Amino acid sequence: MNRKISVECLRCGKCCLANVLSFATDADFQRWEAEKRADILHVIEHYRPVWAGDHLISVDDGRYLHGCPFLSWDGDRCKCTIYETRPEVCGRYQPGSSQICPQWHRNKA
Ligand code: SF4
Ligand code: SF4
Questions:
Q1: Inside any domain, residue 7
Q2: What is the extent of the structural domain holding 60?
Q3: Per residue in 18-69, pLDDT tens?
């Protein structure tokens, strides 16, 4: 029988380096509208990233984008600045559930 292992998040931020916002759903946008989170909507409207090989750049000026615009740091530990209303895809993500996460090997134990 497979045993489901609960894996701790190390707050390394790697899962927030992709363009996760491209997976924001209509439900996310409707929630942000209902919550009057114009700050979030404004950031997303002006984020406009594209992949340039193996990293994201801004469509506007080509600057290097370091992942999600809501990713912040507390020392060497990441934090989500919109955690309480983060996209559903972020809420569903389980530490160790993909190879980008350093806890992947523990999830496979
Ligand atoms: S990659 Fe894994 S350990 Fe790192 S922040 Fe994301 S869930 Fe946590
Ligand atoms: S919204 Fe928060 S949890 Fe989701 S990718 Fe951005 S920083 Fe990470």
A1: no
A2: 14-107
A3: 777 788 999 999 999 999 999 999 998 888 888 888 888 888 888 888 889 9
Nearest-5° Cα angle at 63, 56 to 12: 50
CA angle 92, 103, 1 (to 5 degrees): 80
Residue nearest (by alpha carbon) to ligand 1 atom 2: 101
User: What type of residue is 35?
Assistant: E
67 close to ligand 2 (CB < 6 Angstrom): no
On the CB side of 65, CA atoms within 13 Å amount to: 28
Closest CA to ligand 1's atom 8: 9
Q: Structural domain tally of the chain?
A: 1
Ligand nearest to the CA of 91: 2
